[in-house]
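Why do we care about 3D structure at all? Because function follows from shape, and shape follows, mostly, from sequence. That is the central idea of this module. The next example makes it concrete: a single protein chain, its amino acid sequence, and then its structure expressed as tokens.
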Amino acid sequence: MNNWKMRAALAGVSAVALTWGGTAAAQEGGDSGLQEIVVTAQKRSENLQDTPLAVSALTAETLESRRIADISDISAAAPNLTTTVTPSSTTNITVHIRGIGESDPVLTVDSPVGIYVDGVVIGRTAGAVFDLVDLERVEVLRGPQGTLYGRNTTGGAVNFITAKPADSFKASQTFSYGRYDYMQSRTSIDTGEVGNSGLRFKFSYLHKQRDGYADDVNQPNRRDPGASNVDAFRIAARFDQGGPLRIDYAFDYNDSKSYSVPFQLAAVRPDIVAYLANSPALGGSALNYSRDRLSTLQLDQGQLRDKVQGHTLTVEYDVTDDITLRSLTGYRKWDNVVDRTDLDGNDNLQGFTVSPAILAPPNDFIPQGINEVELFGASNVRSQKQFSQELNLLGKAGDNVEFVLGAFYFKEKARENNPQQLTLVLPSPATIPLGGELSTDSFGVNLTPQLAYRHTSESMAVFGQATFHATDKLSFTGGIRYTEDKKHLDQSAAMVRDLHAKFSQVNWAASVDYKFSNDILAYARVATGYKAGGFNPRSVGGSFDPEKIISYEAGLKTELLDRHLRFNLTGFHSRYKDLQVSQFLAGTGGASSITVNAGKATYTGVEAELLAEPVRGVTFNASVGYVDRKFQSFIIRDSATDELINVADEARFHYSASTTANAGIQYETPLSFGKFQARLDWTYRSRIYFHPLDRLNPFNRDISDGAVGRFDARVALSQIDMGPTRATVALWGKNITNEDYLYSGIDFGSLGFAGIVFAEPRTYGVDVKLEF
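And the structure:
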């Protein structure tokens, strides 16, 4: 379905929903209405509908009904939001908001979408897919958040808020089983207040495991691509005696053993196909490639091991009735070992090879005979640790001014050691006989490039924001932030260099909002953002400058028909300067990429969100987002002429969709023995590309992924009284229509091939939850 038809259809759905919601809610005026959602998008607790920002939120109930447990599942949480798992991993994530994101998992390139857990920033999107036990809420802030959230939020921010220890004892145990031998056990225990000490504790534990969703003939099911075995736990403590002091501490730990999502070859240069056609006759395997999903693969990949841990300490003290001092301290660590990853989708390919001496003068041709050929494979050892400290002073000045003052410090250390193996296939000036009737017109050169570096990042900032309530209806908000960033790259391979850089930036935001009534809020906002510059160790050039954004936004938030209809609308226009774009390349130096300040780009779009309760027990939600993205300039150096040229007309915005949409309907009704609930969700995104320039990645069009709509469903019986416990039994399915769509794709450019990763096919299962 093309974009204009898609938008017309969604407009029709929204119009029908509005009419339906208005009629039914008028008839059922005595209903309780939609649940109020409290968010902390502006560092203080406030009603979602009173927050003059483009922010979406998912409550704990919605997270459970949609089975959302980590960041990879939140694409349906907000318009113009896409998430996808990247190759060679099960824990690396690419997040885009309004078309802005970062796809390169290298540990020196920052994501322009900030990810936070209880207010503590997660410094890397690599390793960011980890289970968050006991989520209370997810908030998605769209657009630049440079004043309150700081650098690297030019696209927006995603904040995961975990549940605090409860005031009284409670416990729950959930068992799950599903397709691909999916098994999960989730335990949560709240102690309640211990005596009269003011102390409360929450203990949570999760174990889950599953087989892969593609068959690797070289491995048992538990080691197939996409398989995982995860143990995670969280310990939370809270001190609150009802006085001015409140203390929250949490420790979370994830230990994941997994196997990379299935990577298959999708396109191969004809001369490489001809070269590898001899492989079976030479004692090897046949080359396996297809643009369609392959259910059976022959791979050479090993285990991935991820360990994630984090400490969070939040201390709040009420200096007066109107002023609170808050300290937020965070420490996080991630360790990752990749035994082996397969990025050519094949194993045991055989071909005629020659010495790498042919690549350097005097270019000696030294035959090495028949050897195993590996188009691309790698292993990796990575780690990252970070410390952050934020101080906030929140309060009121008189009756009309609310303010937030803050200071922030962040320090991060990361390292990576990434040996790679590849075979460069080159044409032979003469046909090479291989014995018998076999011959080849090409030969392979086996290479073992390596990437190794250490990286340090340090950031400091001071900021403030104030809101002046001129009248009961009219308010003005202004904020400013000053940031300094220091970065250091110490690289030992594939080149040796020691680079330092320092950046600083002032960001600001200003907005005005007006309440036409208690249920209708309109606002206009202008905000700037900044993403720090830095270094790309994969690139010869290495360094890149900061990117900057100014965004203009206007929105309308409404809650109508006695709180039975919630409709929010946002329009925006953003201008980027020195936009950072990562371009994946590959050659004799292995997998490489360049991060360039491409130039200028504009993003103009609209977002609409609807939530309606037309009749008691029925809830309908829908959202749509559209972004018109244009490069004003995209400057690259032409390899043929060595001149700078503007390729804005051909550049693509990669890993993000111009149109996103989702819709869901939920029905629930009380029964004599509990409650029945049924839910159906639909999530849509338009076509995506995985690289910005076809001229550098010739298979870019071939591996792009068309528009896709996915359906998920859940049916549950809950609150079943079983004496000392209440039970919930739920049947669920994801991608129930079994749509074939892609997580990601890589075009290896000059190496002559490209591959793709298909997302999971249909999955389904059952959950049994006991609450005490």
